[in-house]
Amino acid sequence: MLTSSPLLLYALVAIIALILLIARYKLNPFITLTIISLGLGLVAGMPVNSIVSSYEGGVGKTLGHIALIVALGTMLGKMMAESGGAERIARTLISKFGEKNVHWAMVCIAFLVGLPIFFEVGFVLLIPIAFNVARRTGTSLLLVGLPMVAGLSVVHGLVPPHPAAMIAVGEYHANVGKTIFYALLVGIPTAIIAGPLFAKFIAPRVQLPAHNPLEDQFIHQDGERDLPGFGITLFTILLPVFLMLLGGWADVLATKGTLANDLLHFIGNSVVALLIATLVSFFTLGLARGFNRETILKFTQECLAPTAGITLLVGAGGGLNRILVDSGVAHEIVSLSNVLHLSPLLLGWIMAALMRIATGSATVAMSTGAGIVAPIAMAQGYPHPELLVLATGAGSLILSHVNDGGFWLIKEYFNMTVAQTFKTWTVLETMVSVIGLMLVLALSLVI
Predict the structure, then answer these.
(1) Cα 239 versus chain centre, distance
(2) What is the rounded distance in angstroms from the CA atom of residue 346 to the CA atom of residue 364?
(3) What is the predicted pLDDT for the residue at 220?
(4) Which of 6, 31, 277, 352 could be disulfide-bonded to 395 (CB atoms 3.0-4.6 Å)?
(5) What pLDDT sits at residue 3?
(6) Which of 75, 69, 85 is nearest to 284 (CA)?
(7) Are 83 and 289 in contact (CB under 8 A)?
């Protein structure tokens, strides 16, 4: 086996190469991750005939779980979009908060709506509401939109049953119920600081163009649309969270080995919980809203195509995880962390942050960081895997830049320049990452 210095050097070079090839030379991230993974295996001295099988094993293990989560979460999000459920939640909360406090309403909306779906899906789902709220209240789109994306981002990286968080839950063998509880303790103040408070500070300092071409496409949608009730919509969105919480506390609610205990664990499984919620949405947000079975089938089929790219990226990140482990890099990181006395929490944050900067994908960063750090944490006997999930999730959100699809989504919809996007969105994401880590470290001192 090679000494630690060459292996760690090779891993560092691989990460730098990822950044350059994706950000500078605009190569396809999936192809780049595959090439870098196989190349790292070669230079690290892995047997040639085992490199591809190692990579494929990592891809398969990752996709075996996350592909189901992505598919079901996307279907649930599609039903929310088509039924008008998200708009109902928005209108209700805005009416409760008042027009002067719309930035607080938007962060709450995003926190709720973003639970089962990817950031990009949630953003496209909510941006028409943001345009309408900004126009109706006469406020800056940044004051309305930044709290919205802060809420979506925090949920994306920290809170199960979001697919990204569920990957780390699986890698660390964390308890889902406890992870949700801790994620709310960390995520709510993080979203408040990086969302409404930061938006109040930065909105007056960034002058957007008077006319936003994309806004015109959505304003007219704020008509007399028949929307579902607030209660039934909220019930449908929060159902998978409730079921997973039941599963997480199954051993408290029922004696181990009993049928009741087994059933609670079963329905609390993330796949089963999302499956149940999605099936319920077909009725509450589908049939009950006048959609027929053919229309619901069409919704569930057409919404899956956009998820193919992110699913492949997540799989490729899992392949890189396996190469890092099988090549001995992860073992050397264990040794180095022992020498430097690095906390597993800090190590998870650093690894995810490096992958986030390299690939631009928070989901890939979270899955890769968790894959690297999980065996290290287990070797050290770290007692709080739920906090590892949160620390890794926080690292996966740092420094969104030009290799992140979300960066360009924010830029185009908010009609900002690249510099303005760095000043607002990139700073917001970095705040979420750093504040999240600080709160996780603080929480680790009291549990």
Answers:
(1) 19
(2) 18
(3) 46
(4) 352
(5) 45
(6) 85
(7) yes
> What is the DSSP secondary structure assignment for residue 445, as one 8-state letter?
T
Distance between CA atoms of 397 and 357, rounded to whole angstroms?
9
The beta strands (E) that lie in 225-383 are given as none
What is the Cβ-side half-sphere exposure of residue 157, based on CA atoms within 13 angstroms? 39
Q: Please report how the helices 141-158 and 163-172 are oriented relative to each other, as an axis angle in degrees rounded to 10.
A: 30
For residue 159, give the nearest of 399, 151, 444 by alpha carbon. Answer: 151
Output the CA torsion sign for 403, 405, 407, 413. positive
Helices then strands, counting H and E runs in the chain, come out as 24, 0
Q: pTM for this one?
A: 0.69
Residue type, position 128, single letter: P
Q: What is the pLDDT, as a whole number, of residue 330? A: 66
The answer to whether 239 and 279 are in contact (CB under 8 A) is no
On whether the CB atoms of residues 163 and 230 are closer than 8 A, the answer is no
Determine which helix (DSSP H) or strand (DSSP E) holds 417, and give its type and residue range. Answer: none
What are the residue ranges in the chain where pLDDT is below 70?
A: 1-5, 23, 65, 90, 116-118, 121, 125, 214, 216-225, 306, 310, 330, 333-340, 358-359, 402-403
Tens of pLDDT, residues 367-418: 888 888 888 888 888 889 999 999 999 999 998 876 677 787 788 788 888 8
State the SS3 of 53-88: HHHHHHHHHHHHHHHHHHHHHHHHHHHHHHHCHHHH
How far does CA 61 lie from the centroid of its chain?
19
- Given a contact cutoff of 8 angstroms between Cβ atoms, the answer to whether 197 and 150 are in contact is no
